[in-house]
Amino acid sequence: MLRFERLDEALADVQAMAQLERAGKLRCLGKWTFGQVLGHLATWVDYSYDGVPMKVPFFLKWMLRPMKQRFLNKPMRAGSNIPRVPGGTLAIDVFSSEEGVARFNRSFTRLRGEAPGLPHLLFGVMSHEDWVKMHLRHSELHLSFLREG
After folding, report:
1. Which residues of 78-95 are buried (b: 16+ CB within 10 A; e: fewer)?
2. pTM here?
3. Smallest Cα–Cα separation from 3: which of 109, 74, 70?
4. Which residues contact 148 (CB under 8 A, 6 or more apart)?
5. Which residue in 44, 95, 131, 149 has a CA-CA distance of 20 to 30 Å to 114?
6. What three-state secondary structure class fits 126?
7. What is the phi/psi pair of residue 15, to 5°?
8. Tens-binned pLDDT, residue by residue, of the chain (149 aa)
């Protein structure tokens, strides 16, 4: 099972995957391309600074806030979808591998050095450490669909 404790681990893993991709040895087990996965992860980091372009009903926040620690510390489940969002999630644009790597590196490097100032869409105000954990769990989920092969 893929697990990251620090942003540097995720950044290094993506660099290793980029080398595999350039050598034609990276296999995508899901529906998305390597660049698309990285663009998705980078955009969700950017949403932490710029805001998410959607609203969540109050009752959903109320229901999910008690689960914050689970989201921060346990693996995210594959197959979850955001209701009434085409494709089940936001930020699913297709990028080349090179553009995806560049976007991922830029966004995750920013997250390493600067805490987001906005409240989380579901969990409200979070510490820098919690923001990092949230994005690491998200990265573990999506990067686990990429394998050498």
Report:
1. eeeeeeeeeeeebbbeeb
2. 0.96
3. 74
4. 20, 25, 26, 27
5. 95
6. coil
7. -65, -40
8. 899 999 999 999 999 999 999 999 999 999 999 999 999 999 999 999 999 999 988 998 999 999 999 999 999 999 888 888 888 899 999 999 999 999 999 999 999 999 999 999 999 999 999 999 999 999 999 999 999 98
